[in-house]
C-alpha cells in the first residue's frame, strides 16, 4: 500500500507598499526638530543659555536631566 501526502505550499503575504521619500521627508524633519527642541530643554535650558526666566523649565525637566546624565547642579 502506497500513501502520498501533499506538502503544503507556502503562502507569502504581499509586501507592504514602499513609502515615497517625498512623503517621508517632512515627517523626518519634524521628528529631528522635535528631538532637538526636547534635547535643548532637557540639556541646556538653565543658566547662561536660558531663554525663559525663572526655574520652571529646569524643575520640570530635572529628573530627565539626571536620567540622561546631564549635570545640573
Automatic annotation (TrEMBL):
Keywords: Membrane, Transmembrane, Transmembrane helix. InterPro entries: CbtB_put (IPR012667). The chain crosses the membrane at residues 24-43. It comes from the Bacteria. Pfam families: CbtB. This is Cobalt transporter. It comes from Dactylosporangium sucinum.
Amino acid at each position: 500500500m502506497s500513501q502520498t501526502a501533499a506538502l503544503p505550499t507556502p503562502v507569502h503575504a504581499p509586501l507592504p507598499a514602499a513609502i515615497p521619500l517625498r512623503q517621508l521627508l517632512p515627517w523626518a524633519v519634524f521628528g529631528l526638530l522635535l528631538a532637538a527642541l526636547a534635547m535643548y530643554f532637557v540639556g541646556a535650558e538653565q543658566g547662561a543659555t536660558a531663554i525663559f526666566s525663572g526655574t520652571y523649565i529646569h524643575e520640570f525637566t530635572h529628573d530627565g536631566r539626571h536620567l540622561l546624565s546631564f549635570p545640573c547642579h
